[in-house]
UniProtKB/TrEMBL annotation:
Pathway: Glycan biosynthesis; alginate biosynthesis. One of its GO terms (molecular function) is transferase activity. The keyword Transferase applies. It comes from Candidatus Blautia faecavium. Keywords: Alginate biosynthesis, Periplasm, Signal, Transferase. Residues 1-24 form the signal peptide. It comes from the Bacteria. This is AlgX/AlgJ SGNH hydrolase-like domain-containing protein. One of its GO terms (biological process) is alginic acid biosynthetic process. Pfam families: ALGX. It is found in: Periplasm. Residues 91-248 form the AlgX/AlgJ SGNH hydrolase-like domain. GO terms for cellular component: periplasmic space. Its main location: periplasm.
Length: 470
């Protein structure tokens, strides 16, 4: 009996130590959970002894222990296949083998909706971009790639019973886009009208047929001559591994069908890229006309071949905030902004980097307050300056434009934006970019002007000193 207990104890500790001892032979270098793995901590840092070494070492072990992906997969299979629940933080286990991205859940349920002012911030910023580009002879189009569960909710699990409203952020944004005159291609309504499912079951994005469908709609909206894929021949292969599938079952993914068009494409990529997920892609097509800049996210990756094949020159960027200097660099005649539905809140916080243009006031503003704004600063960033701050709620209407007057002379309209303060979001923020020579280095008289129903008012006035972005 004593020998049995000893053998049992040895076996127990061997099993417990196996993940640690196995790290020497089997290393986990990548994560299937769409995040960076913890790095091994240093015992000594620039500040001296690392007092957080033990918890950081624990995080490293948690991310790197041997057979981690195997154990993660086994646990996910037990929970997913037997219990119908997801073990991956970012994945929702749906019915009939469908997977959904958890970041889209608030949109689906109608929770944590953007304020009306936030919706205005998005729409008015897009309108300002459009106005600036059209003044330079550049066409502009904005579109939103719908969340998968917005289009195909039938396989969502029990969450559906907690839905608060169907009037989510996208539905509420559309009237603001219309009021601001933003050129908008409504992909939600277009996809909703199709009987065929055009998204992957185990991925968060549309399939190639869905991407071709979206590209047709966008180019039709632009009046761009292009080859439609509606009748194009294609091959179906069961070889696609979805992003959600990889997150949930890293070593037991299930291939699903993907569409591969047989059409020969005539564009070429400039330089080397790993895939269409690269942050910046430049393409050329000598047999086509026009120049495109597309600001896109992961949904736009599948759009790259269709637009690259339609334009003589195309530049695809995943950078945020949008660098509108790209338009001049690439001599673009068309700009498309594509954003996933779940990222609409981010749009309210990331105005583009675009120099403000001076405006002429139709009336002299009344002085309403000298402290109606806070956190106002001028920050130098190379050869440009950024002016930011936030107007207090009582001095703003939902659709109030914000202007900045510098040194009592030039007046510029600022981009309205949301600013995160602690754990709260302030929708009364503003941002303005100017060439550095537009302000003086020793001090600047800055006035914040707000247009309300009762007219134009000065709500803030102060002398500001320029800070340097290190």
């Amino acid at each position: 009996m004593k020998k049995c207990k000893i053998l049992y104890s040895i076996l127990f500790f061997a099993v417990c130590l196996l993940p640690s001892l196995g790290m020497a032979a089997s290393k986990t270098e990548t994560s299937s959970e769409n995040r960076e793995l913890a790095q091994f901590p240093s015992l000594v840092t620039e500040e001296g002894l690392n007092v957080e070494w033990l918890p950081e070492a624990g995080e490293y072990f948690q991310d790197h222990f041997a057979f981690r992906n195997e154990l993660v997969t086994a646990n996910a299979l037990i929970n997913g296949k037997l219990l119908g629940t997801s073990t991956a933080q970012g994945v929702i286990q749906g019915t009939d083998n469908w997977l959904y991205y958890k970041d889209s859940l608030n949109d689906f349920l109608g929770l944590e909706l953007l304020s009306d002012r936030s919706l205005y911030n998005i729409a008015h910023t897009l309108s300002m971009m459009q106005e600036n580009l059209r003044a330079r002879g550049v066409d502009f189009l904005f579109t939103v790639a719908p969340n998968k569960n917005s289009l195909y909710p039938e396989n969502m699990p029990y969450y559906d019973s907690f839905k608060v409203t169907e009037n989510n952020n996208l539905a509420r944004l559309v009237p603001y886009l219309e009021k601001e005159g933003v050129a908008y291609a409504d992909l939600y309504q277009a996809f909703k009208g199709e009987e065929e499912i055009l998204y992957h079951e185990r991925d968060s994005h549309w399939n190639n047929k869905g991407a071709a469908f979206a590209a047709d709609i966008l180019m039709d909206a632009l009046g761009k001559e292009h080859d439609s894929y509606e009748e194009e021949a294609y091959e179906v292969r069961k070889d696609y591994i979805g992003d959600l599938d990889e997150m949930l079952y890293p070593l037991a993914t299930t291939p699903e069908e993907e569409i591969y068009y047989e059409k020969t494409l005539t564009y070429a990529v400039v330089g080397e890229i790993e895939s269409n997920f690269d942050p910046r892609i430049t393409t050329v097509n000598p047999v086509k006309e026009g120049s495109l800049v597309m600001y896109r996210d992961s949904f736009g990756n599948a759009l790259v071949p269709f637009f690259a094949d339609a334009y003589a020159n195309a530049y695809f960027s995943r950078g945020v905030p949008y660098q509108l200097s790209d338009v001049d660099t690439n001599q673009a005649d068309t700009v498309i902004v594509e954003r996933a539905e779940r990222f609409l809140p981010d749009m309210a916080q990331s105005p583009p980097i675009l120099y403000g243009t001076s405006v002429k006031l139709e009336e002299e503003p009344k002085s309403l307050a000298l402290d109606g704004a806070s956190d106002v600063q001028i920050l130098r960033q190379g050869n440009q300056v950024q002016l930011t701050g936030r107007v207090k709620e009582e001095y703003l209407d939902t659709e109030s434009p914000i202007y900045l007057r510098i040194n009592g002379a030039a007046v510029y309209e600022a981009f309205p934006m949301n600013i995160t303060v602690g754990e709260e979001t302030d929708d009364g923020g503003f941002c303005l970019y100017l060439p550095a020579q537009a302000v003086i280095s020793s001090g600047n008289s800055l006035e914040v002007l707000v247009e309300k129903d009762d007219g134009l008012n000065i709500v803030y006035q102060s002398e500001l000193k320029e800070e340097t972005d290190q």
